[in-house]
């Protein structure tokens, strides 16, 4: 029996109107030369639209990533990642997701996440403009969990106004323990 090896991608998800997702004024022409192409800048704004949770679920995100792989890399690319592609963790409040991908085809899944422009939210039955940014790649889910916790601690003040510190930390601790057992 052969052991399959995976990599885990920590992704930040954003949704909203397309003009607010890539809000950088820098163009490719200003950066390198000939063609104009907007560059996406990382900013510190909330990963959700107006403080509300993202309108899609982990299952919706999985379907969107699978569809992005198929549309950009064809049936062959979809077949390469179909057996191992999974969303292992998704939190709509923080916009954080952990996606499992086959080690040999990590770059293919990474590119599909980057090229993702819409996610079909089953609850709303509409396609929502989205941007998925890969912020960390790890070999184990434990390393990804540590990265998620560190990032959440750094952005803690964004979420304090929504809940009290104790309630949110208890809920987060229960969710993390439940998912990563």
TrEMBL record:
It comes from Cyanidium caldarium (Red alga). One of its GO terms (biological process) is tRNA 5'-leader removal. InterPro entries: Pop5/Rpp14/Rnp2-like, RNase_P/MRP_POP5, Rnp2-like_sf. Component of ribonuclease P, a protein complex that generates mature tRNA molecules by cleaving their 5'-ends. The keyword Nucleus applies. It holds the Pfam family RNase_P_Rpp14. One of its GO terms (cellular component) is multimeric ribonuclease P complex. Belongs to the eukaryotic/archaeal RNase P protein component 2 family. One of its GO terms (molecular function) is ribonuclease P RNA binding. Residues 36-57 are annotated as: Disordered. It is found in: Nucleus. Its main location: nucleus. Keywords: Nucleus, tRNA processing. The keyword Nucleus applies. This is Ribonuclease P/MRP protein subunit POP5.
């Amino acid at each position: 029996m052969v052991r399959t090896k995976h990599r885990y991608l920590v992704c930040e998800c954003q949704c909203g109107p397309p003009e607010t997702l890539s809000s950088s004024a820098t163009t490719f022409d200003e950066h390198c030369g000939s063609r104009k192409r907007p560059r996406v800048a990382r900013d510190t704004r909330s990963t959700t639209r107006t403080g509300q949770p993202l309108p899609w679920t982990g299952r919706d995100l999985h379907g969107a990533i699978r569809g992005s792989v198929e549309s950009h890399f064809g049936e062959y690319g979809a077949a390469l990642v179909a057996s191992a592609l999974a969303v292992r963790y998704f939190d709509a409040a923080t916009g954080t997701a952990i996606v499992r991908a086959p080690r040999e085809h990590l770059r293919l899944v990474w590119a599909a996440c980057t090229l993702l422009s819409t996610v079909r939210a089953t609850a709303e039955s509409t396609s929502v403009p989205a941007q998925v940014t890969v912020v960390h790649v790890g070999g184990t889910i434990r390393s990804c969990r540590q990265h998620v916790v560190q990032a959440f601690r750094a952005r803690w003040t964004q979420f304090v106004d929504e809940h009290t510190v104790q309630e949110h930390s208890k809920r987060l601790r229960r969710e993390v323990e439940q998912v990563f057992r």
